[in-house]
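Reopening this one. Same input as before:
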Amino acid sequence: MHHNIIISRATMQDAELLYSLSVTTFRDTFGAQNRKEDMDKYLAQVMSLENLSAELADEANYFFIARHNTLPAGYAKVRANSEPDIIAVHPLELERIYVLNQFQGIKAGAALMEHCIDFAKSHGHDVLWLGVWELNHKAIRFYKKWGFGFCGSHPFLLGDDLQTDVLMRKVL
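Same output, byte for byte:
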């Protein structure tokens, strides 16, 4: 159990909170290395309140919110779908895992990752996989520490900028 960190599944009532967490953490993580136009376009297309609400309503998606002393600290999203490159019987994608800057260093990311791994195992998934921007070295180090290994790559469109995500997987 991580100190004062509680993780719960997000519901429709959390749509505004998830929207705010999504936009803030995405800008903090990628803003410095990308054009503002591409960031704005991606956020408007993918992380709009409308889109997040639709994702929350879709039962294939699970969003988890980490709270530290009741304050939202970060979130994760998993979904049971697969890339053609992922070899597994019942893979689960860790599509997003983000922690607000002010909560980094209190193990909120570790708590979320542990929660996602436990969720995957308890729901019969044999592989947890993810795509991560090849230039996001901090995230790649974090995933390696958790036992994820490289297994391919795929294109990722950020606004009008075609980037490469490396794929990583952890056998459960």
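So the earlier flakiness isn't reproducible anymore. For the record, The mean pLDDT is 94.
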